[in-house]
Amino acid sequence: MVQTEQLQDELRSALKEVFGYSQFRGNQEAIIRNLMSGKNTFVIMPTGAGKSLCYQLPAIVMPGTAIVISPLIALMKNQVDQLNAFGVNAQFLNSTLTKSELNRVKKETLNGQVKLLYVAPESLTKDDNIAFLKDAKISFVAVDEAHCISEWGHDFRPEYRRIKTIVDQIGNFPIIALTATATPKVQADIQKNLHMEEADIFKSSFNRTNLHYEVRPKIDAQKQLIRFIKNHKGKSGIVYCLSRKKVEEIAELLTVNDIKALPYHAGLDADVRIKNQDAFLNEDVDVVVATIAFGMGIDKPDVRFVVHYDTPKSLEGYYQETGRAGRDGLEGFCLMFYSPEDITKLEKFNKDKSVTERENAKLLLSEMAAYAESSVCRRRQLLHYFGEVYNDNLCKEGGGCDNCNLPKEKSFEAKEWLLLLLQTVHETGQRFGADHLINILRGTTEQYVLSYGHEKLPVFKKGEALTEQEWKSIIRQAMLYGYLDKDLENLLSFKISEKGYAFMERPTPVTFTKDHDYTGAETELIADDSENAAHGGAYDETLYEMLRNLRRKVARQKNLPPYVIFQEPSLEEMATTYPTTIQELAQVNGVGLSKAQKFGKPFVDMIANYVAENDITTAADVVVKSTVNKSKTKIFIIQQIDRKVDLEEIAEAKNLSLAEVIEEIEHICYSGTKLNLDYYIDQMLEEDAQEAIYDYFLHAETDNIKVALQALDDEFTEEELRLMRIKFLSELAM
Ligand code: ADP
Ligand code: MG
Ligand code: ZN
């Protein structure tokens, strides 16, 4: 007894002295005591709950060195830095060390100075490392991110499978395994592999009360993303994308839109990765755009949002990644963009895998899709996935979710359907999966149905009023609300739970919800035209009409054709992004600063009034500036024209056609740079020809070139007309 109290005091004072915390969180103390009494210990806690302390603290108070096995070099560095900052001697052993650094680490370990030695699994398997560790005094072995052992986990590392064998060669010490993975399958795999079936398990609830979950259709996602981040201005956040290419693109997109962001993915050099990670940790940048290579074990407590720009591959991974938000217990917004197309694309990526891997990946994806499409409380779904029973008020009391705020129309009375479903499960002996049950319910005379004689059941065809999708959704909800359980022996079939039988005996009203409809959501996984980003989406038609009228009025006053003032696509964009200052207006495609200054005042005034009257949150901050960098060519063209170089020559120098050069020049002009092409036009067209065309544009209804060609009886070439149009616009509109 005296001993326990002593230990308790010792642990508490170390907690306070070293880490500055006055209390343990959750099970931390019990876990530490269990480990220190020499027992194998298995810790399952959600991300951000404080797993590291469970091995860091005992390592500090116990004699000798603790070996910490950890999958990522970035993660080790982060923890070692933090521990060093607390004055703890922690070191790492991995492939980035030089020979002399390695020798120093070994020496300090052998003479007992090092309290925690972080080792990558690759380094652990090296013979000379094993030899040296045999000579060291080891207190215990910690296996962090232990789900890496399991191929059912989301980032399986084959080397993790050898840990136990190697540890046995080094000596006999207790093992503490830690993971944020809560699926029973992964847990069983970890225990089996580390030969710690007898370990004491410490599992805490996975509910992250402070996180808010939301799924949005992936429509105009770039603009949505920029708007979202600008609404969280100055806050730290992570944006996850599935591919390296996408990471680079989105990081650049954010940067040109004045958001401080850096990319992070495994394709970057190690030093760039470390630099970018540090920039994020030190808050030199607000946002890291990353593949899932980023974030594991990285402890930035005040990450305020995590965005999944692409639909993730599994709920498991999704939950880990969202878990990086709000570790400090304050707000954390988890936003995911979902598109069924993304799921299809991801399925295609799996085609080269082995059959079992493919089947497994497919299952994970279908669970992901079900989560996104369902309009059942997100938290309920997530916790159910992790095998937790859910208390109805959890979501509303905490961070909430989009589905909990859904309008009433989404829900429907499901009593009859649920009863029908349970009867079908019952009458078929609780041996069948969703597809078969749905075939019976909808009356599909498919061969399996016939071979079991299930077309003769009274329930056959009773559910034909609902679609296959609707039935799938009902089956999922029957599970989520505990009427059906998965059969643990045969994961594809269902068993009726006690609650289910109680319901069958005395059916009571049940409210289920209709799935979301994501048709129309786009995918950007492969093809992506960021250039068009600003043109997508519907514009505000009322405002558009008002702007057109205004344009007509201004044109009349100035005695110019309306299109000289602003072109129609520009008006559409104004009616989408609501620019209310000349600066913002200048960002609109086809406007440019000089035009904005010359004509813009009445337009921005009108928009400002409109925005105020209609209580619109101005979206002017989400003008998506394109990342497509053609500026080099543009600058070249401007310089050459200044030097009066012939357009053909410019074309040749840049390997473009004349038409392409003219197109570039048009872009340059429309975005507000004045160009004087007289030197070229004068040698191409007689003066009276020039006048005729000029006069035409001055009185024409439209500046469309096809129309102009016809109206001028095909007397001129398209190039000539386009160049004259540029001259005309440059002189009158800027
Ligand atoms: P996990 O590995 O479980 O994802 P971490 O070990 O990185 O989580 O810890 C998450 C955060 O919780 C860190 O900021 C850590 O300093 C903090 N933390 C851990 N234990 C305590 C405690 N007892 N009191 C206060 N904060 C704690
Ligand atoms: Mg951790
Ligand atoms: Zn909810």
How many separate structural domains?
5
Could you say which small molecules are bound to this protein? adenosine-5'-diphosphate, magnesium ion, zinc ion
CATH architecture classification of the largest domain:
3-Layer(aba) Sandwich
Euclidean distance between termini CA atoms? 88 Å
User: What would you give as the CATH superfamily of the largest domain?
Assistant: P-loop containing nucleotide triphosphate hydrolases
Poorly predicted sequence stretches spanning 5 or more consecutive residues: 525-537
Enumerate the strands of the largest sheet in spatial order, edge to edge or round the barrel. Answer: 3-4-2-5-6-1-7
Task: Please work out how many helical segments DSSP would assign.
Answer: 34
CATH topology name of the largest domain: Rossmann fold
CATH class of the largest domain: Alpha Beta
Largest sheet: 7 strands, parallel
Share of β-strand residues: 5-15%
